[in-house]
Amino acid sequence: MKLNQRINLLCELGSFLQSYCDGVKKDEITLKLDSAVLESISINPFFQKENILYNLNYWAKTLKQGKINSFVSKYDLNKKQINVGIIMAGNIPLVGFHDFMCVFLSGNKSIIKLSSKDNKLFKFMFSFLKDLSPSFEKYIKILNDRFRNFDAVIATGTDLSANQFKKYFKNIPNIIRNSRYSVTILDGNESNEDLKKLSFDIFMYYGLGCRNVSKIFIPTDYDINHLINNFTEWKNIINNSTYYNNYIYYKTIFLMNRDKFLDTGFCILKKSTKIGSPISCIFYEHYSSLKQLKKNLKQNADKIQCIVSNNIVENSIEFGSTQSPSIDDYADKINTMEFLLKLS
């Protein structure tokens, strides 16, 4: 399959996803995706329909001819095919699709180990592509047993699983991703609209993604209640039983430890120097010097996925944009395409 054929295939998937999200028609294919969505929700309590539809709509807008052509134009893709193992995470819907896309566009074959928490949507996507072009089957294999027969590997997981991956795959080329978190820096000049967008960056996908903001840096005289007042539109998040259980668990722990915290009734705000916060909790930290804060961020760069602010620091992104990365915004800042092309 030539590069332009691979691109066209992904664009057709994007067009279908757009029509599905727009509710344009109901046919046999859309009913299959309906089924995959419902099955995903039944398997993973954090996969609510609104979250899945947001993700599908993101990919519908990303898999466009112009965006993909611009993306691949930076690389020399005329290489021999290799087998690339991909171990998918399951924290948010289709979180490993970008890895698959890179492997596919580079002309290589994906040997995929799906997460048990997110396999129905992927299986639909791959079935859809296979129905469009039978030759697509040469570019993918879904493993149901032992992970093997690959020349390189891309694996995403927690800090614990990442350490195991590094040991297991130490003798082959690899990209191993571990836990990362996103942070925001406020200076008190943000509008209410900015903070409402920040609440999206925090609570979308229940805060499970590496691009979800889990830490807030605020000036020493900042009124924390100003944040709470702009987060209330997410109060119904507490109705998810799994999220609620996390909320009750950490609230109990903090009470038993006699820790100080603010309880909004749907999340907990707690002062902490840690970057990553647990589900249902948001950590915050005061800063008095922007210079010192920048030094702090630099020291924790290997834990931070992205920084949200109104251009307070370099390379920060705007409020409300964390879950809409550009097609060339690579996880952990590791260029997947360059990694793949060096191997081919």
What does this structure look like?
The chain is an alpha/beta fold and 344 residues long. The chain has two domains: 3-179, Aldehyde Dehydrogenase, Chain A, domain 1 (3-Layer(aba) Sandwich), CATH 3.40.605; 181-308, 3-Layer(aba) Sandwich (Aldehyde Dehydrogenase, Chain A, domain 2), CATH 3.40.309. 42% of the residues lie in helices and 15% in strands. The protein has helices at residues 3-22, 28-43, 49-62, 65-72, 97-105, 120-132, 159-168, 192-203, 225-231, 241-256, 290-299, 336-343; strands at 83-87, 109-113, 140-142, 152-156, 174-177, 181-185, 213-219, 262-263, 268-271, 281-287, 304-308. It has a six-stranded mixed β-sheet, with helices on both faces. α1 runs antiparallel to α3 (49-62). The relative contact order is 0.13.
Summarize this structure as a short list of keywords or feature phrases.
Aldehyde Dehydrogenase, Chain A, domain 1; Aldehyde Dehydrogenase, Chain A, domain 2; 344 residues; 2 domains; six-stranded mixed β-sheet; alpha/beta
Whole-angstrom Rg: 21 Å
Task: Order the strands across the largest sheet as they lie in space.
Answer: 8-9-10-7-6-11
- By CATH, the topology of the largest domain is Aldehyde Dehydrogenase, Chain A, domain 1
Number of domains: 2
Question: What overall form do the CA principal axes indicate?
Answer: globular
Helix content: 40-55%
How many individual helices?
12
User: Which second-level CATH architecture of the largest domain applies?
Assistant: 3-Layer(aba) Sandwich
The CATH class of the largest domain: Alpha Beta
Rounded mean pLDDT score? 94
H/E element string?
HHHHEHEHEEHEEHEHHEEEHEH
Which structural class matches the secondary elements? alpha/beta
Report the end-to-end length measured between terminal Cα atoms. 16 Å
